[in-house]
Write a structure and sequence with these properties.
Keywords: DNA-binding, Metal-binding, Zinc, Zinc-finger
Number of domains: 1
Order of helices and strands: EEEHHEEEH
Protein name: THAP-type domain-containing protein
Distance between the termini: 40 Å
Largest sheet: 2 strands, antiparallel
Number of helices: 3
Helix content: 10-25%
GO molecular function: DNA binding; zinc ion binding
Oligomer: single chain
Structural class: alpha+beta
Strand content: 5-15%
Strand order of the largest sheet: 1-2
Radius of gyration: 16 Å
């Protein structure tokens, strides 16, 4: 199954390990990770949904299947899991970084077309 980031305009996807170009582990800080929405914490879930421009009444059965990539979180939002293999989100993390790359890509394309 291919995971797609739920943030509007974000092109990030994660392919299964056997489809990736390299299945070798990369340094934890460099690897793109995908995170589930906090469906068990209604206040935080509301903040996440508002941050990614989704209706706060979005059905939970769909929200539980959505993922958000690590590019939408600041480095301070992460903690290192056991063995420093996985990056985990802190229980207080809320996505806060959006569309910077997309705007930059748009500006570059605009300049090339002139």
């Amino acid at each position: 199954m291919v995971l797609k980031c739920a943030c509007p305009g974000c092109p990030n996807r994660e392919k299964p390990a056997k489809v990736r170009k390299s299945a070798l582990p990369t340094p934890t800080d460099d690897r793109l990770t995908f995170h589930t929405f906090p469906v068990n914490d209604p206040k935080r879930l509301r903040r996440w949904l508002l941050a990614v421009q989704r209706d706060v009444d979005f059905p939970l059965r769909y929200v539980s299947q959505m993922r958000l990539c690590s590019e939408h979180f600041s480095p301070d939002d992460f903690k290192t899991g056991p063995g420093k293999i996985r990056r985990l989100l802190k229980s207080t993390a809320v996505p806060s970084l959006f569309l910077q790359k997309e705007y930059a890509r748009g500006l570059i394309k605009l300049r090339l077309n002139l």
